[in-house]
Write a structure and sequence with these properties.
Elements lengths: L6 H74 L31 E2 L3 H4 L8 E6 L29 E14 L4 E14 L2
């Protein structure tokens, strides 16, 4: 009798504990896997959003570079031949600006177009152009170092020195925007004051 082992009772007790532990491990593992899956899905969504934001930023910078280049081309044209450059009159107080989107000034006869430039400037879907306004009447007389004045071409603005000229240049460029279902337009503007002798 002394040699009778007491192990069956102990092993039975241990077996019951093992079954209880296995019942707890499975839900804990499932919860951990669910949390990890949620973290991975969140990170994937965040990465996709970051990629879209980076692509949008890249497109915006590329389009801004293109329209700034076009603006410099228009300024160079005015510097080279101010009297032979196509210009439009500024809009009146109750009218939309002469450079507003869809205005007739963006037509071939009243704007400075750059045919074929879309192939040279990356990211453009159409040829860029400029609308140049003759804004000389916005100058305040006298604006001459010698005090010279001429016949007024601006009603109610007094005499202006005819050698001075003010122009407002608006450049426009566009790129395809499939996410918006059309094109993305960008405008930039500068003003120049010229003294022509």
């Amino acid at each position: 009798m002394m040699n009778k082992p007491f192990l069956p009772k102990l092993s039975g007790a241990r077996t019951g504990q093992r079954h209880q532990m296995m019942g707890v491990v499975l839900p804990v593992v499932l919860v951990v896997l669910t949390v990890l899956t949620g973290l991975v899905v969140t990170q994937v969504r965040r990465n996709a959003m970051d990629e879209r934001l980076a692509a949008n930023t890249r497109e915006t910078v590329q389009l801004d570079n293109a329209v700034q280049t076009v603006l410099r081309w228009c300024e160079a044209r005015i510097n080279l031949a101010p009297q032979r450059t196509i210009m439009v009159a500024p809009a009146g107080p109750a009218q939309p600006p002469a450079w507003s989107r869809g205005h007739a000034n963006w037509g071939d006869g009243t704007s400075l177009d750059f045919a074929g430039a879309a192939a040279d400037l990356p990211g453009l879907s159409a040829d860029p152009s400029c609308v140049i306004e003759n804004a000389t009447c916005e100058l305040s007389p006298p604006i001459s170092p010698t005090g010279q004045t001429g016949a007024s071409t601006c009603p109610g603005n007094g005499d202006l020195d005819p050698r001075w000229m003010k122009v407002r240049i608006t450049a426009s460029a566009q790129t395809a925007a499939p996410d918006m279902g059309g094109n993305r337009l960008i405008f930039t503007q500068s003003e120049m004051r010229l003294f022509i002798e």
